Amino acid sequence: METAMTESDYMFDPDRRFLFSLSREIDAWLDEGTEDSPETRFFVRHAPDIFRLLCRLSFDPEVAPKERARLFWARVYFINSVDVLPEVAHGPAGYVDDVAVSAHVIDGVAREGSGDTLISRHWGGDGEIAEIISEILCGAERLLGKGRWDLLRRMPDEI
Fold it and tell me: What is the pLDDT of residue 36?
């Protein structure tokens, strides 16, 4: 019988604090009725669950070491507020690049043999994770621009 991972198995204290503040910030932003596009709201709404998925996958021994390194890199990128779309300048809409990069890395885990089953097993959010990742990857270039998205897609591959 497989034992389910507990939060302490895959999250350090800074991760927990970040996830707590991220969830509160996004809930407040969505509740206040932002004027951002529906696509931006879709990306940002999934940010906490995508971050949690990064954490869970990065500690799963079934994930290849190279992919786990990419997952850790995506976690650091997500937490770092100085990035392509800084949250300090864009508010919660600044998480669009973080979600896009994370979706790209998670998609890489699925393609490298770990598969959608592993990803689905760790998914704790609403909806089908494979569909959500696909929608994020399809919209990333529109929201970020081709140049930014090309740069962001290459970054985790340099690890």
Answer: 84
pTM of the model: 0.90
pLDDT tens sequence across 114-137: 678 889 999 999 999 999 999 999
Q: Of 155, 153, 43, which Cα lies nearest the Cα of 96?
A: 43
3 state SS of 124: coil
Buried b (16+ CB within 10 A) or exposed e, 82-112: ebbbebeeeebbbbbbbbbbbbbbbbbbbee
- What CA–CA distance (Å, rounded) separates 54 from 111? 15
DSSP H stretches of helix in 59-128: 65-79, 87-90, 96-109, 115-122
What's the rounded Cα separation, in Å, for the pair 115 and 112? 7
Distances (CA, A) of 3 to 7, 9, 101, 124: 13, 11, 29, 16
State which H helix or E strand residue 10 sits in: helix 7-10
Cα-based angle 155, 16, 22 (whole degrees, multiple of 5): 70
Q: What pLDDT band is residue 1 in, cutting at 50, 70 and 90?
A: very low
Please give the Cα distance from 77 to 55 (Å, whole number). Answer: 13
pLDDT at 39: 94
